[in-house]
Design a protein that fits this description.
two-stranded antiparallel ribbon, Spore Coat Polysaccharide Biosynthesis Protein SpsA, Chain A, binds 1-O-phosphono-alpha-D-glucopyranose, alpha/beta, ten-stranded mixed β-sheet, 11 helices, single chain, 22% strand
Length: 290
């Protein structure tokens, strides 16, 4: 069984739901407390043992590349001012030299196409895929739980979580035949089912472990929901040939691509921070109590 060493982060999206903030700033660089959304997701991947970080970017996303590079002038200034904690944090957050790769999705053809753009960098090994919009907050990082499941079951793994019945049309939905186990075999999946037609309320949470055989399917994948090349459609084809399991994430999932999810994530992550939680709780209470 091949170890999961590389992770793909599709970061080419325009972020139109967050205009005007995203006119010049990539949506992945918006902060949840004091860390960019993309840094939180890279943190999750590193905690799961990922060694190489592959970003599928687009035009106007170069600041993501800068963010994961060293900033010599800033580091020298911090050193000169004895800001050792800030310096240590910057150093800890920066991946090692050579541990990042950047490629571009030249046209907005959909998630399936974005993943396909990483094929040369991934090569012939299974890989993780993390959608930066989705933040997972739980006792254990979601990808770490999925890698445990991968070691037991092998094949392909998708993270899922229950959503409200009236939200299923916004997500990829998996059918596990009613199984309630944490790790369950996938029977079917459908991308953004029309209202009232979803086979379950288990949504794809934006975390995947995929075999490289997905790339051949993506290469010829026809456009699906929303006129885009959908990863879910290729995964459904792959599920007919290879093992495919869903891992139910028991923590909270925040869709930071929506305003409500983004604001909720900021509150939830602030509440997890011992340095600000007590005062923040009081400040929120004051606001709510008028
Ligand atoms: C993508 C996936 C979908 C998944 C969702 C999670 O959709 O295609 O299966 O449930 O991410 O956020 P998107 O949000 O890009 O439309």
């Amino acid at each position: 069984m091949k170890r999961i060493r590389k992770a793909v982060f599709p970061v080419a999206g325009l972020g139109t739901r967050f205009l005007p903030a995203t006119k010049t700033i990539p949506k992945e660089m918006l902060t949840v407390v004091d860390r960019p959304v993309i840094q939180h997701v890279v943190d999750e991947a590193r905690a799961a043992g990922i060694e190489h970080f592959v970003f599928v970017t687009g035009r106007n996303k170069h600041v993501i590349e800068d963010h994961f590079d060293k900033q010599y002038e800033l580091e020298a200034t911090l050193r000169g001012r004895n800001k050792t904690a800030e310096l240590a944090q910057l150093e800890a957050d920066t991946p090692a030299a050579g541990a990042t790769s950047f490629t571009r999705q030249q046209e907005p053809l959909g998630l399936g196409h974005a993943v396909w753009c990483a094929r040369e960098i991934i090569g012939d090994e299974p890989f993780a895929l993390l959608l930066p919009d989705m933040l997972h907050l739980g006792v254990k990082p979601c990808l770490a739980e999925m890698i445990e499941a991968y070691e037991a079951k092998q094949g392909n793994i998708i993270g899922v979580y229950p959503v409200a019945d009236d939200e299923t049309h916004q997500y990829g939905i998996v059918d596990v035949g009613g199984a309630t186990d944490k790790v369950a075999k996938i029977k079917a999946m459908v991308e953004k089912p029309a209202k009232g037609t979803a086979p379950s309320n288990l949504a794809i949470s934006g975390r995947y472990i995929l075999q490289p055989s997905i790339f051949n399917l993506l290469a010829t994948q026809k456009r699906g929901a929303g006129g885009e090349i959908q990863l879910t459609d290729s995964m459904l084809e792959l599920a007919a040939k290879e093992a495919f399991h869903a891992v139910r994430f028991d923590g909270r999932v925040y869709d930071t691509g929506s305003k409500l999810g983004f604001l909720s994530a900021n509150v939830a992550y602030a509440m997890m921070r011992p340095d600000i939680a007590p005062e923040f709780r009081k400040a929120i209470g004051d606001i709510l109590n008028g």
